[in-house]
Specification:
By secondary structure, the chain is α+β, with helices and mostly antiparallel strands. The chain has 2 domains: 125 residues, Beta Polymerase, domain 2; 92 residues, Hydrophobic Seed Protein, CATH 1.10.110. The chain is 41% helix and 17% strand. The chain has 11 helices and 10 strands.
Length: 241
Amino acid sequence: MTIRLFEVGGSIRDELMGIDNPPDRDFCAEAPTWGALKRWCEFNMDRVFLVTPEFFTVRGRMPNGDSIDVVLCRKDGPSSDGRHPDHVQAGTLLDDLARRDFTVNAMAREVDVRTLEPIGDIIDPFGGQEDLVTRSLRCVGDTKERMHEDGLRILRAARFIVTKDLGPSEDLRRELNSALPWLWMKDTVSVERVREELQKMFKNNSVSAIRFLSSSCAQTALEVLLGHGSSIWLRPTMEKK
């Protein structure tokens, strides 16, 4: 059985940006089925810690000693609830990259299945490297569709703009200035997920976060996130100890 393993997402983005402290490495695997990936992990990992079928994920320790999550490359169907795809199926690396939020997060690199060392060039089907050069944040595919698939993405866009010093594409700028995606987030995303995203954003720079939300986003954004009656708790990073 041939399984190909790829490093994907934020660690590659931050490496290309020259960030010294990149996030944990994420991995996805091309496999014919979920069952095939699970069997491969059981055979090739030194130890399997956790199997999560609903997320097509296996957590375990690799022969090089690293503990990682391996996620099946998949192709998502449409999302009617703004949280989860209505159906998913095993897919290729390209399918998996195509379902991601932004081009700068949709890059991958094949790695050795035992050492996790890179064995190929960066795979960048949607122009993420060029967008990093121009400091642009652009959605993979149709911007409105990406925002509807997961209501949290509008806030993730704001976070990446603030924390990575990126500028939104025109399509994304229109979404940020529209009330609809912020209301969609309010209706479909749990308070816990929103709070976690906000904390990441404010931990980087509270002043820049407030400035961007108040000047470059719809008024609805602040009302949803921090307005009267909002159940989202936040402690700014500039709070005195």
